[in-house]
Amino acid sequence: MNKKIIFRLDNVNVEFERHSLAQRSLRSALGRKLNRHKSEKIAALKNINLEIREGENIGVIGRNGAGKSTLLRVLTKVIIPCSGKVQVDNSKHIVPLLELGIGFQPDLSGRENCFVAGMLIGYSKKEIEEKMNSIIDFAELRDFIDEPVKNYSSGMYARLAFALATDINPQVLLVDEVFGVGDEFFMKKCMIRMQELMNNGLTTIFISHNLDFLISQSNRLIWFDGGEIKLDGNPFDVAEAYRNSDNNLKLVVSG
Amino acid sequence: MTSSEYIDKRSLRFAWYYSLSQLKAKYRYTSLGFIWNFLEPALYLIILSLVFAVINRMNISDYAVFLFSALVPWRYFEKVVNLVMESLVNGEWLLKKLYVSPFAFPINRLIMASFDFLFSIVVAFVLFAFLKENWTIHLIIIPLAIIPWAIFGFGLGLICAVLYTFFRDVKPLVQMILTLTFFTSPILFSRTVFVPDSFQAKIMDFHPITYFAALFQKPVYNAVWPSEIDWAVSICIALISLITGLILINKYKSQFYYYL
After folding, report:
1. How far is CA B256 from the centre of its chain?
2. pTM (2 decimals)?
3. Which B residues in the span 55-84 are in contact with A, Cβ-Cβ below 8 Å?
4. How many domains does chain A have?
């Protein structure tokens, strides 16, 4: 357990203000100031303490709205928490995959998008040029790479984005349930690529609803519930507890 | 404070390549393509000079040179303020998903507007070739004269960007103020239309754009160097707005996520 700490969260709180569209205007802002009216707040993360070390492959599970995606946004500094401390090891190349195709512009071709989006996740022009062929091969887009991506199918789009994010050797990969699109074969290909990367010592944090994949691939599983960490430990035990938590939800099977 | 608190290499690289790709994509589906970059300012300048020459009853070629000299930098300034103001809100698609410096989008917009300025200044000089008789050494000051305009526009844009993120009412207000500023500034008309020491002439002394406009009007139209006061006032205003903008963004950047 003496490996380097990559992420460390101390008492991290994230709260969202509940504001409707009408409250965005100058008038309502003035009104709020004058009336000292406090707007309603929703806690997305409550007092999170977490340490993530090099080489760990972490799975994150939980119901919708449990704070899983907010956690990834805190780790990638997109959200600056209301209170608490976030420490990130900046020497590591961290690639977030919160959504497939972040930074893609519909009017640009697949190749042009690889450059813009690739730069966003921290690669230089040269690195992308070197890997261009292997990205195209993995995404199976040889005939379409110079077409604008707005003409791509959602599967083609996802393949290109995944290939780009994982082909250029990230050191830490944060993935938020992104394999919903694409066909069975592509999903399998992604899973295999993920396995390879994990076996090569890549640190991963993987949000998924695919429990079986998480049990077999991760060495630590964290269960989020209502913005708090409910359980954190051995993947098998956590998955078991998570599965048993919905005892009163049963599908009616006829016959 | 170190520079890394403002901008990192990755964000800068993105700002630059995103600008290039936008430039490529802008007229991609038009048949004239890249030529539009020149045609657009050309048509605008020609129409405006025709209209106002008639209204002002001035010699058309003389007036056009006067008008273009300050109108081209003003159009640039206005564009920078507007684009930078909207840059954070329009960058929501990225800012809420992936960390980039809060200055990445404002810088990207500044670069975009600067491309436009380059095209416009080329067009203006092509038109000058037909209109302008006295070509003097003073024209070489132009690359320097645009710098205070750029810094002022960028700084003001940053200030407006912070306000606009929190209060969306700011956009129409800013546009109105810019329009008012434009029509009261000595860009469309020369200061000399007023009687010296008259009330209107005194107002011109307090109009900030008077000094910015002089940086272009004097070398291009009057064939003299801009005065020290022109430089001092414009550079001071530019720096004050830039520093205010930088401070505001740094102060409120942790809250942008919740308001975008």
Report:
1. 25
2. 0.90
3. none
4. 2
Spell out the residues 6+ positions from residue A68 whose beta carbon is closer than 8 angstroms to its own: A60, A61, A62, A176, A207, A224
- List the single residue in A103, A107, A124 with the smallest CB-CB distance to B28: A107
By C-alpha distance, the chain A residue nearest B173 is A26
- What order do you get walking across the sheet with A83-88 strand by strand? A41-53, A5-17, A83-88
On whether ipTM exceeds 0.90, the answer is: no
Helix (H, G, I), strand (E, B) or coil at A10: strand
Half-sphere exposure of A120 (CA within 13 A, CB side): 28
Name, in order, each residue with C-beta under 8 angstroms of B135's C-beta and a sequence gap of 6 or more: none
Separation between Cα atoms, residue A116 and residue A222, nearest integer Å: 33
Nearest to B149 by CA among B116, B184, B105: B116
Residue A80 shares a structural domain with residue A110: no
DSSP H helices in B91-103: 92-95
A78 → chain B, closest CA residue: B99
**What are the counts of helices (DSSP H) followed by strands (DSSP E) for chain A?**
8, 9
Distance CA(A5)–CA(A1), nearest Å, equals 10
Domain boundaries, chain B: 8-259
Got the DSSP string for B11-23?
HHHHHHHHHHHHH
Where do we find the tokens 């430039």? Answer: B23
Q: Is residue A24 part of a domain?
A: no
Distance CA A190, CA A182 (A): 10
Higher pLDDT, B28 or B142: B142
Same domain, A198 and A156: no
Going residue by residue through chain A (255 aa), what tens digit of pLDDT does each one get? 568 899 999 999 998 876 655 566 666 767 766 666 666 778 889 999 999 999 899 999 998 888 898 999 999 989 999 899 999 988 888 888 888 888 888 888 999 999 999 888 888 889 999 999 999 998 888 899 999 999 998 888 888 988 898 887 788 999 887 766 667 888 888 888 888 888 888 899 999 888 888 888 888 999 999 899 999 999 999 998 998 887 666 666 665
- Locate the chain B residue with the closest alpha carbon to A95: B98
Given a contact cutoff of 8 angstroms between Cβ atoms, the answer to whether B56 and A136 are in contact is: no
Position B1 confidence tier, pLDDT thresholds 50, 70, 90: very low
| Shortest Cα distance, chain B CAs vs residue A203, angstroms | 19
The verdict on A135 and A79 lying in the same domain is no
Q: What residue numbers bound the domain in which A15 lies?
A: 1-19+42-92+187-246
The token pair at A69 is 């995606």
* pLDDT of B162: 96
Chain A neighbors of B258, CB-CB under 8 A = 16-17
Could you say which DSSP state residue B8 is in? -
The reply to whether B28 touches chain A by the CB within 8 Å rule is yes
